[in-house]
Amino acid sequence: MERSATFPPIPGNQSYTNTTCSRDNVLKTVVFPVLYSFLFLVGLLLNSVAVWVFFRIPSRSHFIIYLKNIVVADVIMTFTFPFKVLSDSNMASTGLRIFVCRVSSVLFYLTMYISILFFGLISIDRCRKTLKPFRGTNAARLTRRKLLSGAIWTFLLILCLPNVILTSKTPTSKYFKCSDLKTEAGLFWHEVVNHVCQIIFWGNLVTVIICYTLISKELYRSYTRTKTNRAEGTVCREPSRTTTRAPQKATRKMNANVFLVLAVFFVCFVPFHFARVPYTLSQTRQVFDCKLKLFLFQLKESTLFLSSLNSLLDPLIYFFLCKSFRTTLFKTLRLPPGTCSWLTGRGSDTDTGSTPLKDSSVCT
Questions:
Q1: Contact yes or no for 112/310 (Cβ under 8 A)
Q2: What tens digit of pLDDT does each residue of 217-262 get?
Q3: Cα separation, 301 vs 2, whole angstroms
Q4: CA nearest to 268, candidates 313, 299, 301, 298
Q5: Hey, is 232 helix, strand or coil?
Q6: What's the chain's Rg over C-alpha atoms?
Q7: How many angstroms separate the CA atoms of 311 and 324, rounded?
Q8: Model's pTM, two decimal places?
Q9: What is the secondary structure of 182-204 as a DSSP string?
Q10: pLDDT value at residue 339
Q11: Contact, 156 vs 162, CB < 8 A?
Q12: Phi and psi, residue 7, nearest 5°
Protein backbone atom coordinates (compact mmCIF):
# COMPACT_ATOMS: atom_id res chain seq x y z
CA MET A 1 0.00 0.00 0.00
CA GLU A 2 1.32 3.42 -0.90
CA ARG A 3 0.27 5.52 2.04
CA SER A 4 3.63 6.44 3.49
CA ALA A 5 5.07 8.32 6.41
CA THR A 6 7.67 10.72 5.04
CA PHE A 7 9.24 13.31 7.22
CA PRO A 8 11.55 16.34 7.10
CA PRO A 9 14.90 16.00 5.30
CA ILE A 10 17.88 14.87 7.31
CA PRO A 11 20.06 17.89 8.07
CA GLY A 12 23.30 17.79 6.11
CA ASN A 13 22.10 15.06 3.76
CA GLN A 14 23.08 16.21 0.28
CA SER A 15 20.31 14.23 -1.39
CA TYR A 16 17.82 16.66 0.13
CA THR A 17 19.56 19.92 -0.62
CA ASN A 18 16.83 20.86 -3.07
CA THR A 19 13.97 21.75 -0.72
CA THR A 20 11.41 21.30 -3.48
CA CYS A 21 11.98 17.53 -3.17
CA SER A 22 10.69 17.48 0.38
CA ARG A 23 7.08 16.37 0.78
CA ASP A 24 6.65 18.34 3.97
CA ASN A 25 4.75 21.52 3.17
CA VAL A 26 1.69 23.36 4.42
CA LEU A 27 -0.65 21.12 2.39
CA LYS A 28 0.68 17.91 3.95
CA THR A 29 1.45 19.05 7.48
CA VAL A 30 -1.43 21.48 8.09
CA VAL A 31 -4.26 21.38 5.52
CA PHE A 32 -4.75 17.62 5.30
CA PRO A 33 -4.46 17.02 9.07
CA VAL A 34 -7.19 19.63 9.63
CA LEU A 35 -9.39 18.06 6.94
CA TYR A 36 -8.88 14.55 8.31
CA SER A 37 -9.63 15.76 11.83
CA PHE A 38 -12.95 17.15 10.62
CA LEU A 39 -13.59 13.95 8.68
CA PHE A 40 -12.90 11.87 11.79
CA LEU A 41 -15.29 13.82 14.03
CA VAL A 42 -18.19 13.97 11.57
CA GLY A 43 -17.58 10.45 10.26
CA LEU A 44 -17.49 9.03 13.77
CA LEU A 45 -20.84 10.64 14.56
CA LEU A 46 -22.58 9.56 11.35
CA ASN A 47 -21.19 6.05 11.33
CA SER A 48 -21.99 5.53 15.01
CA VAL A 49 -25.61 6.40 14.21
CA ALA A 50 -25.48 4.09 11.18
CA VAL A 51 -24.16 1.18 13.27
CA TRP A 52 -26.75 1.79 15.99
CA VAL A 53 -29.59 1.87 13.44
CA PHE A 54 -28.48 -0.88 11.09
CA PHE A 55 -27.92 -3.52 13.69
CA ARG A 56 -31.51 -3.11 14.77
CA ILE A 57 -32.60 -4.06 11.24
CA PRO A 58 -32.85 -7.77 10.32
CA SER A 59 -30.76 -8.89 7.34
CA ARG A 60 -33.74 -9.74 5.15
CA SER A 61 -32.33 -8.57 1.83
CA HIS A 62 -29.07 -8.68 -0.12
CA PHE A 63 -28.95 -4.90 -0.05
CA ILE A 64 -29.05 -4.67 3.75
CA ILE A 65 -26.33 -7.33 4.06
CA TYR A 66 -24.06 -5.36 1.74
CA LEU A 67 -24.76 -2.07 3.50
CA LYS A 68 -23.97 -3.56 6.90
CA ASN A 69 -20.58 -4.68 5.60
CA ILE A 70 -19.88 -1.17 4.29
CA VAL A 71 -20.84 0.27 7.69
CA VAL A 72 -18.24 -1.94 9.42
CA ALA A 73 -15.59 -0.99 6.83
CA ASP A 74 -16.37 2.72 7.25
CA VAL A 75 -16.08 2.54 11.04
CA ILE A 76 -12.65 0.86 10.80
CA MET A 77 -11.50 3.40 8.20
CA THR A 78 -12.68 6.29 10.38
CA PHE A 79 -10.53 5.09 13.30
CA THR A 80 -7.41 5.22 11.09
CA PHE A 81 -7.77 8.98 10.53
CA PRO A 82 -6.30 10.16 13.88
CA PHE A 83 -3.12 8.17 13.21
CA LYS A 84 -2.76 9.78 9.78
CA VAL A 85 -3.33 13.21 11.31
CA LEU A 86 -0.54 12.69 13.86
CA SER A 87 1.78 11.18 11.28
CA ASP A 88 1.31 13.82 8.59
CA SER A 89 1.56 16.72 11.03
CA ASN A 90 4.88 15.33 12.35
CA MET A 91 3.45 15.11 15.88
CA ALA A 92 3.77 11.33 16.16
CA SER A 93 6.59 9.48 17.88
CA THR A 94 8.77 7.10 15.91
CA GLY A 95 6.88 4.14 17.38
CA LEU A 96 3.53 5.57 16.31
CA ARG A 97 4.87 6.24 12.82
CA ILE A 98 5.94 2.61 12.60
CA PHE A 99 2.43 1.57 13.72
CA VAL A 100 0.97 3.76 10.93
CA CYS A 101 3.11 1.97 8.34
CA ARG A 102 2.54 -1.55 9.68
CA VAL A 103 -1.10 -1.46 10.74
CA SER A 104 -3.07 1.75 10.29
CA SER A 105 -2.33 2.29 6.60
CA VAL A 106 -2.96 -1.37 5.84
CA LEU A 107 -6.37 -1.18 7.53
CA PHE A 108 -7.20 1.99 5.61
CA TYR A 109 -6.59 0.36 2.23
CA LEU A 110 -8.22 -2.89 3.34
CA THR A 111 -11.47 -1.09 4.15
CA MET A 112 -11.29 0.99 0.97
CA TYR A 113 -11.21 -2.10 -1.25
CA ILE A 114 -13.85 -3.86 0.81
CA SER A 115 -16.10 -0.84 0.16
CA ILE A 116 -15.27 -0.94 -3.56
CA LEU A 117 -16.19 -4.63 -3.77
CA PHE A 118 -19.48 -4.11 -1.95
CA PHE A 119 -20.29 -1.11 -4.15
CA GLY A 120 -19.96 -3.46 -7.10
CA LEU A 121 -22.27 -5.99 -5.45
CA ILE A 122 -24.80 -3.25 -4.62
CA SER A 123 -24.75 -2.13 -8.26
CA ILE A 124 -25.47 -5.69 -9.38
CA ASP A 125 -28.27 -5.96 -6.82
CA ARG A 126 -29.86 -2.64 -7.90
CA CYS A 127 -29.62 -3.71 -11.55
CA ARG A 128 -31.26 -7.05 -10.78
CA LYS A 129 -34.08 -5.39 -8.83
CA THR A 130 -34.64 -2.89 -11.64
CA LEU A 131 -34.73 -5.44 -14.45
CA LYS A 132 -36.59 -8.10 -12.41
CA PRO A 133 -38.47 -6.16 -9.73
CA PHE A 134 -40.76 -9.00 -8.70
CA ARG A 135 -38.05 -11.59 -8.14
CA GLY A 136 -37.95 -12.21 -4.42
CA THR A 137 -35.36 -13.66 -2.11
CA ASN A 138 -35.24 -16.56 0.30
CA ALA A 139 -33.20 -17.87 3.21
CA ALA A 140 -30.82 -19.80 0.95
CA ARG A 141 -29.97 -16.71 -1.13
CA LEU A 142 -29.45 -14.63 2.02
CA THR A 143 -27.12 -17.30 3.45
CA ARG A 144 -25.09 -17.29 0.22
CA ARG A 145 -24.73 -13.48 0.39
CA LYS A 146 -23.53 -13.72 4.00
CA LEU A 147 -21.00 -16.37 3.03
CA LEU A 148 -19.87 -14.21 0.11
CA SER A 149 -19.42 -11.26 2.48
CA GLY A 150 -17.34 -13.39 4.82
CA ALA A 151 -15.24 -14.65 1.90
CA ILE A 152 -14.50 -11.07 0.76
CA TRP A 153 -13.29 -10.06 4.23
CA THR A 154 -11.23 -13.25 4.59
CA PHE A 155 -9.62 -12.88 1.15
CA LEU A 156 -8.58 -9.26 1.68
CA LEU A 157 -7.37 -9.91 5.22
CA ILE A 158 -5.17 -12.76 3.97
CA LEU A 159 -3.97 -10.54 1.11
CA CYS A 160 -3.04 -7.66 3.42
CA LEU A 161 -1.65 -9.58 6.41
CA PRO A 162 1.83 -10.07 4.85
CA ASN A 163 2.08 -6.28 4.53
CA VAL A 164 1.89 -6.16 8.34
CA ILE A 165 4.26 -9.07 8.96
CA LEU A 166 6.87 -8.12 6.34
CA THR A 167 7.06 -4.46 7.40
CA SER A 168 9.47 -5.47 10.14
CA LYS A 169 12.75 -3.63 9.59
CA THR A 170 13.95 -1.19 12.24
CA PRO A 171 14.30 2.36 10.92
CA THR A 172 17.89 3.61 10.85
CA SER A 173 16.74 7.20 11.26
CA LYS A 174 13.66 8.98 12.56
CA TYR A 175 13.16 10.29 9.01
CA PHE A 176 11.84 7.36 7.02
CA LYS A 177 9.26 6.17 4.52
CA CYS A 178 7.05 3.14 5.02
CA SER A 179 8.90 1.35 2.25
CA ASP A 180 12.13 1.66 4.32
CA LEU A 181 10.58 -0.69 6.89
CA LYS A 182 9.75 -3.43 4.39
CA THR A 183 11.91 -6.47 3.85
CA GLU A 184 12.77 -7.55 0.32
CA ALA A 185 9.85 -10.00 0.42
CA GLY A 186 7.69 -7.21 1.79
CA LEU A 187 8.47 -4.95 -1.17
CA PHE A 188 7.64 -7.80 -3.55
CA TRP A 189 4.35 -8.52 -1.76
CA HIS A 190 3.54 -4.81 -1.73
CA GLU A 191 3.79 -4.82 -5.53
CA VAL A 192 1.60 -7.94 -5.76
CA VAL A 193 -1.07 -6.32 -3.56
CA ASN A 194 -1.01 -3.17 -5.69
CA HIS A 195 -1.71 -5.21 -8.83
CA VAL A 196 -4.54 -7.14 -7.13
CA CYS A 197 -6.09 -3.88 -5.88
CA GLN A 198 -5.94 -2.41 -9.37
CA ILE A 199 -7.77 -5.47 -10.70
CA ILE A 200 -10.39 -5.11 -7.95
CA PHE A 201 -10.98 -1.45 -8.76
CA TRP A 202 -11.06 -1.65 -12.56
CA GLY A 203 -13.20 -4.79 -12.46
CA ASN A 204 -15.73 -3.10 -10.20
CA LEU A 205 -15.62 0.10 -12.26
CA VAL A 206 -16.62 -1.88 -15.36
CA THR A 207 -19.33 -3.66 -13.33
CA VAL A 208 -20.75 -0.38 -12.03
CA ILE A 209 -20.78 1.21 -15.49
CA ILE A 210 -22.52 -1.80 -17.08
CA CYS A 211 -25.11 -2.06 -14.30
CA TYR A 212 -26.04 1.61 -14.35
CA THR A 213 -26.15 1.66 -18.13
CA LEU A 214 -28.77 -1.12 -17.95
CA ILE A 215 -30.61 0.70 -15.14
CA SER A 216 -30.65 3.92 -17.20
CA LYS A 217 -32.11 2.11 -20.20
CA GLU A 218 -34.83 0.51 -18.09
CA LEU A 219 -35.70 3.82 -16.41
CA TYR A 220 -35.91 5.47 -19.83
CA ARG A 221 -38.21 2.71 -21.08
CA SER A 222 -40.37 3.11 -17.99
CA TYR A 223 -40.50 6.88 -18.49
CA THR A 224 -41.44 6.44 -22.16
CA ARG A 225 -44.23 3.98 -21.28
CA THR A 226 -45.57 6.30 -18.56
CA LYS A 227 -45.48 9.28 -20.91
CA THR A 228 -47.32 7.31 -23.61
CA ASN A 229 -49.98 6.14 -21.15
CA ARG A 230 -50.55 9.68 -19.96
CA ALA A 231 -50.82 10.94 -23.52
CA GLU A 232 -53.42 8.28 -24.32
CA GLY A 233 -55.30 9.13 -21.14
CA THR A 234 -55.71 12.77 -22.18
CA VAL A 235 -58.00 11.68 -25.05
CA CYS A 236 -60.74 10.83 -22.56
CA ARG A 237 -59.93 13.34 -19.84
CA GLU A 238 -57.34 16.05 -19.43
CA PRO A 239 -55.59 15.55 -16.06
CA SER A 240 -55.22 18.43 -13.65
CA ARG A 241 -51.78 20.04 -13.70
CA THR A 242 -51.70 20.21 -9.92
CA THR A 243 -52.29 16.46 -9.60
CA THR A 244 -49.68 15.42 -12.19
CA ARG A 245 -46.86 17.82 -11.41
CA ALA A 246 -46.16 16.52 -7.88
CA PRO A 247 -45.95 12.80 -8.85
CA GLN A 248 -43.63 13.68 -11.75
CA LYS A 249 -41.29 15.56 -9.41
CA ALA A 250 -41.37 12.71 -6.89
CA THR A 251 -40.58 10.17 -9.62
CA ARG A 252 -37.64 12.24 -10.82
CA LYS A 253 -36.24 12.40 -7.26
CA MET A 254 -36.63 8.67 -6.74
CA ASN A 255 -34.94 7.92 -10.06
CA ALA A 256 -32.11 10.31 -9.16
CA ASN A 257 -31.66 8.48 -5.86
CA VAL A 258 -30.95 5.27 -7.78
CA PHE A 259 -27.76 6.88 -9.12
CA LEU A 260 -26.46 7.94 -5.70
CA VAL A 261 -24.28 4.81 -5.47
CA LEU A 262 -22.80 5.63 -8.89
CA ALA A 263 -22.09 9.24 -7.86
CA VAL A 264 -20.37 8.27 -4.58
CA PHE A 265 -18.29 5.60 -6.37
CA PHE A 266 -17.06 8.02 -9.02
CA VAL A 267 -16.39 10.90 -6.61
CA CYS A 268 -14.54 8.81 -4.03
CA PHE A 269 -12.68 6.08 -5.88
CA VAL A 270 -12.14 6.98 -9.53
CA PRO A 271 -9.88 10.07 -9.08
CA PHE A 272 -7.52 8.23 -6.70
CA HIS A 273 -7.01 5.28 -9.02
CA PHE A 274 -6.33 7.52 -12.01
CA ALA A 275 -3.81 9.52 -9.97
CA ARG A 276 -2.27 6.38 -8.51
CA VAL A 277 -0.89 5.12 -11.83
CA PRO A 278 1.49 8.04 -12.55
CA TYR A 279 2.34 8.33 -8.84
CA THR A 280 3.42 4.68 -8.71
CA LEU A 281 5.53 5.22 -11.83
CA SER A 282 7.21 8.20 -10.18
CA GLN A 283 8.12 5.95 -7.24
CA THR A 284 9.54 3.13 -9.35
CA ARG A 285 11.06 5.00 -12.32
CA GLN A 286 13.95 7.44 -12.04
CA VAL A 287 12.71 9.64 -14.90
CA PHE A 288 10.72 12.22 -12.92
CA ASP A 289 12.26 15.41 -11.56
CA CYS A 290 11.60 16.61 -8.01
CA LYS A 291 8.87 19.10 -8.91
CA LEU A 292 6.89 16.52 -10.85
CA LYS A 293 7.30 13.94 -8.07
CA LEU A 294 6.04 16.48 -5.54
CA PHE A 295 3.07 17.34 -7.76
CA LEU A 296 2.15 13.67 -8.21
CA PHE A 297 2.47 13.07 -4.46
CA GLN A 298 0.16 16.01 -3.70
CA LEU A 299 -2.28 14.81 -6.38
CA LYS A 300 -2.27 11.33 -4.84
CA GLU A 301 -2.85 12.71 -1.34
CA SER A 302 -5.68 14.96 -2.58
CA THR A 303 -7.47 12.10 -4.32
CA LEU A 304 -6.79 9.86 -1.30
CA PHE A 305 -8.74 12.37 0.77
CA LEU A 306 -11.65 11.96 -1.66
CA SER A 307 -11.47 8.22 -1.06
CA SER A 308 -11.57 8.87 2.69
CA LEU A 309 -14.64 11.04 2.11
CA ASN A 310 -16.45 7.80 1.29
CA SER A 311 -16.87 7.17 5.03
CA LEU A 312 -18.84 10.42 5.23
CA LEU A 313 -20.93 9.98 2.07
CA ASP A 314 -22.02 6.39 2.63
CA PRO A 315 -24.62 7.41 5.24
CA LEU A 316 -26.36 9.32 2.42
CA ILE A 317 -26.80 6.01 0.62
CA TYR A 318 -28.26 4.43 3.74
CA PHE A 319 -30.72 7.29 4.18
CA PHE A 320 -31.87 7.77 0.58
CA LEU A 321 -31.86 4.18 -0.66
CA CYS A 322 -32.87 2.17 2.39
CA LYS A 323 -36.41 2.59 3.66
CA SER A 324 -35.71 0.30 6.64
CA PHE A 325 -32.87 2.58 7.73
CA ARG A 326 -35.08 5.71 7.49
CA THR A 327 -37.98 4.06 9.30
CA THR A 328 -35.80 2.87 12.20
CA LEU A 329 -34.04 6.23 12.40
CA PHE A 330 -37.31 8.18 12.44
CA LYS A 331 -38.79 5.89 15.09
CA THR A 332 -35.73 6.36 17.24
CA LEU A 333 -35.88 10.14 16.87
CA ARG A 334 -39.69 10.08 17.29
CA LEU A 335 -40.23 11.71 13.90
CA PRO A 336 -43.30 11.11 11.68
CA PRO A 337 -42.84 8.63 8.77
CA GLY A 338 -43.19 11.32 6.08
CA THR A 339 -40.24 13.34 7.40
CA CYS A 340 -37.83 14.46 4.66
CA SER A 341 -40.23 13.27 1.93
CA TRP A 342 -39.24 16.34 -0.09
CA LEU A 343 -35.73 14.85 -0.26
CA THR A 344 -36.57 11.20 -0.83
CA GLY A 345 -39.39 11.86 -3.29
CA ARG A 346 -41.97 10.05 -1.17
CA GLY A 347 -44.98 11.35 0.60
CA SER A 348 -44.77 8.65 3.25
CA ASP A 349 -42.63 5.73 4.25
CA THR A 350 -45.53 3.52 5.13
CA ASP A 351 -46.01 1.62 1.88
CA THR A 352 -43.89 -1.44 1.21
CA GLY A 353 -45.23 -2.77 -2.03
CA SER A 354 -43.35 -0.60 -4.52
CA THR A 355 -40.75 -2.06 -6.80
CA PRO A 356 -37.26 -0.56 -6.87
CA LEU A 357 -37.97 0.96 -10.28
CA LYS A 358 -40.98 2.83 -8.97
CA ASP A 359 -39.47 3.46 -5.58
CA SER A 360 -35.71 3.38 -5.32
CA SER A 361 -35.78 3.85 -1.59
CA VAL A 362 -37.14 0.43 -0.65
CA CYS A 363 -34.25 -1.48 0.89
CA THR A 364 -34.92 -4.87 -0.65
A1: yes
A2: 888 887 787 777 766 665 455 555 444 454 455 455 555 667 888 8
A3: 10
A4: 313
A5: helix
A6: 24
A7: 20
A8: 0.83
A9: --HHHHHHHHHHHHHHHHHHHHH
A10: 65
A11: no
A12: -130, 180
CA 343 to chain centroid: 22
Question: Among 198, 170, 194, which Cα is nearest to 182's?
Answer: 170
* 112, 271 Cβ separation under 8 angstroms: no
| CA 137 – CA 116 distance, rounded (Å) | 24
CATH architecture of the domain with residue range 23-226+247-344? Up-down Bundle (1.20)
Confidence tier at 104 by pLDDT (50, 70, 90): very high
Tell me, what's the pLDDT at 243? 45
Q: Look at the alpha carbons of 267, 53, 80, 179 in this order and tell me if their dihedral is positive or negative.
A: negative
- pLDDT tens, 39-62? 999 999 999 999 999 888 998 899
| SS3 state at 2 | coil
Distance in angstroms (rounded) separating the CA atoms of residues 184 and 179: 10
Cβ atoms of residues 56 and 327 within 8 Å: no
Could you tell me the residue ranges of all domains in the chain?
Answer: 23-226+247-344
pLDDT at position 102 is 93
Q: How far apart are CA 87 and CA 301, in angstroms?
A: 14
